[in-house]
Amino acid sequence: MTAQELVAAVRNGDADGVRRLLDDGADPDTPDPDAGAPLLCVAVAACDEEVVHALTDAGADPLAVLSDGSTPMGRAVDGGSIEMVSALLREPVRFPPDVRRALLERARRWAAAGPEAELRRRSGDRGPAVREPVVDRDGYRIYERVGVGGLTARDGHDGILTELEARFGIRAPFEELLARALARRAPDHAVWSQAVHTLSVRGDEDTWAAAVEAGRSADRLRRLFAAELLLLLLLGPPSARTPSPFDGRGTAVLLPWAREERDPEVLQAVLNALTEEGSPQTEALGRSYLTHPDARVRRMVPHTLELDERRLLVRPESLRTVLALARDHDPRVRSAACSWLAEYRGHDPRIADALAVLVHEEDQLTRIHAVSGLAHQDDPRCVEAERHIGPVDRDQWPDAWMLTAVWRYEQRAARRAAGSG
User: Fold this and answer.
1) For 197-220, what is each residue's pLDDT tens digit?
2) pTM, full prediction
3) What are the contacts of 211-214 at 24+ separation with CB within 8 A?
4) What's the CA gap between 378 and 408, in Å, rounded?
5) 182 has a pLDDT exceeding 70
6) Cα angle for residues 132, 41, 104 (degrees, 5° grid)
């Protein structure tokens, strides 16, 4: 019965159920009765990263040789999902040199041919290919899924090659990784994201210099890639306990670039990178975009205005700018302004009045920020405004403290009333 339950849990994508059954003694290499392959292959085909992790954590072998000569790892490469390959590569030391070479060659073959041509070669089908966009389970990485002759694959093989090289200690040239990203001409594509991430992890002077140089290109996509990479280099590796080696160097590069940049999408990315190093110059530049014709740029303005524990109150002109953005005709700009105002550490009746209007926004997150900000401003209108938030699954909400802002206001008000009595 345990094996049947494990099969059902894997098919249903129930990662918690899979872990529970494995803890109870189920075999992680249990075969699927229909697919005739280990359940790990079923999870890989479904692009279910959590189930893959559950199975491999319990000992499922990504290099197990199947009856057709394939392996779960080889099938992951064929499938074109970077996430699946990464999930099976958590212990690269387990992959001997001959396996590494075979996987790299496999990824290069798919990347060179493209998924449609490779699927035609495998299926022998000459009919039309079916193409559709797909997003990973986190909603972060976008692919194109290609279907030919009953076979399907995502178009992430360039990114898989990038991931394999990085995990196996191969340093691909900057321009080669950039070319893989630019081949899609889509900044939200998984291959683009993988190239930016891989280069950012290097965190060395050569990568910084190459990114700065790419930012001077006449090609807008090269500049966009450079801006995204510079941001990650300034942030530094997520696991690092020390500041980025480039800390303090971003403003000198990004500020003059932002002043000259005319492409709205690139300018948005440059401003985003500039926010990592707040300065009076950055604030002045951000305020200058108050009436920029592109909403993407106006949305970035609040992020350029310093608002953190280093200073209790922002400059008056910065506050006036955000209050103006709270009345912008674009709801996304109003949302960005609302989030900024909700975090303002001082008390100002103009902020409370602006937030009282924003509690009626269509976007629920904006309404939550507005109500939370009203409560922080100790404005009694927050009590009535809370009903505008609507139903919220508090267990799934990442910032639950915002949802209790009105309760905290009421507690403060009760203590004040008791003290005055």
Assistant:
1) 999 999 999 999 999 999 999 999
2) 0.90
3) 212/253, 214/178
4) 10
5) yes
6) 75
